[in-house]
Specification:
mainly alpha, about 0% strand
């Protein structure tokens, strides 16, 4: 009798883990927005200017991101529709088109650092002009998105490899520079704004963490998983997606901490050369490869370029996905997926391409900073927690909201 009960408990635990693993994926795709080149640049500069004192901003930002992303996932699970479709059904036509326009601007603003970061990486690796790198980034993104025809899981695996490749570079350097653990922990849990530029850098960190298009993306990605249309099935799915999102954003937090700590430790060393000291005072994506020089030596620029390319390329893929769902949900345009992706990609890269052609590397770097403070990086007026129950009951869906 006892052995049968034990076998039953073991089976339930095993099946629970299998169900959880079946829900893994959407949260990690969404977490890429918090690891894009825009976040890397603000992390690098914050670390160079203030060492570990602004880590608490990243921690608070990602905690709120987890709350908002979990609400977005619950919205998709409980209604069977993603946020753009619900906005189209819930709001008057004028508000609907205003929301669509703001959402598109948000995608463009979030896409600028991703595209330019990838272009910088190609410039570092192959000495390709930045404007050419912008075009190649758009083309390569469309090619990689072609993997979705073979299943979402394969695309999720590819992006995970790119993310862990980027993380390996900074964790390797983190092990070498050995930042003081006490100072890092103090920076995470003791809020401070010391120094002339501390407030501005803190705002920049928060601006880079605000990703409105992620709400549309997360609510749509959870629909790729089959959820039983029952109260228990909905509750289990919401719980699994919450755990998965928490794990993904925890990994994103660790990578952001590693980037800030590496920058803060290297730029605070007393034996820093004059050239590297000047770089620390104005740290940008295309000048930060020297941070990895202690571990990688002459190959630092190559490995840094690869990590930057992994960050930019993976985040541009998710940005294109978000734009695709936004266009489909608000406008209900019936067209082939590849054509919709092409239109979304062309709209998103136009500002980056124009600035790269006119302003070159310097203008492109400034555009990343401007995009972090863009007005479109503001949360859209959507009541995620309340609209799921209202929409489900109004449309007579079989799904019931999570408690």
């Amino acid at each position: 009798m006892e052995s049968s009960v034990s076998q039953k408990e073991t089976h339930q635990q095993t099946s629970g883990w299998k169900r959880f693993l079946a829900h893994v994926g959407p949260g990690f795709l969404v977490s890429l927005a918090y690891l894009d080149p825009g976040n890397l640049e603000t992390d690098l500069q914050a670390g160079a200017n203030h060492r570990y004192e602004l880590l608490w901003v990243i921690l608070i930002g990602l905690i709120f991101a987890l709350i908002i992303q979990s609400l977005s996932a619950n919205l998709g699970v409980t209604t069977g529709k993603h946020l753009a479709e619900l906005c189209k059904a819930e709001y008057p036509i004028f508000i609907k088109y205003c929301l669509w326009l703001v959402a598109e601007l948000a995608v463009i603003a979030a896409d600028i650092p991703e595209v330019i970061g990838s272009a910088f990486a190609l410039n570092i690796l192959f000495h390709i002009p930045v404007w050419t790198g912008v075009l190649l980034t758009g083309l390569s993104t469309l090619i990689l998105l072609g993997l979705q025809r073979y299943g979402m899981r394969k695309l999720e695996l590819l992006i995970s490899i790119l993310v862990f490749l980027m993380a390996a570079c900074y964790f390797g350097e983190l092990v070498y520079v050995k930042p003081p653990a006490a100072e890092v922990m103090k920076g995470m849990f003791v809020p401070r704004l010391q120094g002339d530029s501390a407030t501005g850098d803190a705002i920049s960190l928060l601006g880079a963490l605000v990703m409105p298009h992620n709400l549309f993306l997360h609510s749509a990605l959870v629909l790729s998983r089959k959820t039983p249309p029952s109260a228990k099935g909905i509750n289990d799915a919401c719980r699994y997606f919450l755990l998965e999102s928490g794990l993904a954003l925890f990994v994103a937090l660790l990578i952001n901490i590693a980037v800030v700590s590496v920058s803060g430790t290297v730029c605070a060393t007393t034996d820093l050369s004059t050239e590297d000291s000047d770089r620390c005072s104005d740290l940008t994506l295309n000048s930060a490869s020297f941070l990895l020089k202690n571990v990688l030596g002459k190959s630092s620029s190559i490995l840094y370029g690869i990590s930057l390319l992994a960050s930019g390329q993976s985040s541009t893929i998710t940005g294109t996905y978000a734009g695709q769902y936004i266009m489909q949900g608000f406008l209900e345009i019936k067209m082939r997926i590849w054509l919709r992706n092409l239109i979304t990609r062309c709209i998103a890269i136009c500002p980056s391409l124009i600035v790269a052609i006119i302003g070159g590397t310097t203008g492109s770097g400034r555009l990343i900073i401007i995009a972090s403070f863009s007005p479109s990086n503001c949360p859209l007026p959507s009541s995620l927690s309340s609209s799921s129950a209202a929409a489900a009951s109004r449309w007579g869906l079989t799904r019931t909201p999570s408690t």
